[in-house]
Please model this.
Amino acid sequence: MGGGRCMRKEGIQLMTRLRVIDNSVPARTIARCAFVFRRKKIVGVGNKIKVACQGKMQNALVTNIRGGGAINCYAPPNFGENTCVLLDNSFQPVGTRVRGPLPSILRKMGPTGAKVSSMASRFV
Model:
């Protein structure tokens, strides 16, 4: 990792387990990544994915990833688990509140990130 570039491959890929942190489903609900809306198959904070949650396919926004916060890298801070917020088909949040902390970088990531960050009460 030289020259200030981040060369990590950490993030969300297919079949990764994520915890849903909005109030549209019961607490501690686990979802699995089923599809990535990017050409690169490893995504990070602020990217949209499709997850299998409670037997249904739903869109989701990745809010936290387990490995982050590298030195010399403008990455979100390190969190203990992978989390997401569920979205509907028009990529609007399904829930009305977020249960956990969100990275403050999510505010700058488009209209969906701004709406999700407005539902949160804690930022890191």
